Amino acid sequence: MKHFAFAPHYRATVGFDQIADIIERALTSESTKTTYTPYNIEEKADDTYRISVAVAGFSADDIVVEVKENALFIAAKKPEIGDTGSYLHREIVMRSFERHFQLADHVQVVSASHIDGMLHVDLKREVPDALKARRIEIVQPAGKAISETAIN
């Protein structure tokens, strides 16, 4: 896979360095990604999301969900148990896994639940009022008012 360098684009953007870093990390780590334990990312409503991870065979005690520095970590470890039987066919494996999800600014983990072999992690984006867009009223300085007759 080609490696893309975003450094030349930094000079044309202001405040987007973090976004470019996230894209660059995603592109460089793509070759090391594992496909074990599939997951879905669902948009439930505006600013509300759910990550669902298939965790069949793992109990809630085997699973760890942590948030650290705008990243969500989901890991599960099954204790090693020796084979007790002789298999004619074996596809079901109980491997440990670890998944990382980079969270956008102001995205908080609301809850996590373990139902029917699925781990559901609910997320909500809550932008503080100070960062929300607000309309600024334009005022005319005193003595500079334009009269209606001057407009006509």
Short characterization:
The chain has 152 residues and is of the alpha+beta class. It has helices spanning 7-10, 17-28, 148-151; strands at 39-45, 48-54, 63-68, 71-76, 97-102, 107-115, 118-125. The model has no long low-confidence stretch (mean pLDDT 79).
Describe the fold and architecture.
The protein is an alpha+beta fold. It folds into 2 domains: 1-33, no CATH class; 35-80 and 91-131, Immunoglobulin-like. Helix content is 13%, strand content 32%. It has 3 helices and 7 strands. The chain has a 4-stranded antiparallel β-sheet with strand order 1-2-7-6, with no helix packed on it. It has a 3-stranded antiparallel β-sheet with strand order 3-4-5, with no helix packed on it. A hairpin with a 2-residue loop joins β6 and β7 (118-125).
Topology at a glance:
Layout: H1 7-10, H2 17-28, E1 39-45, E2 48-54, E3 63-68, E4 71-76, E5 97-102, E6 107-115, E7 118-125, H3 148-151
Antiparallel strand pairs: 1-2, 2-7, 3-4, 4-5, 6-7
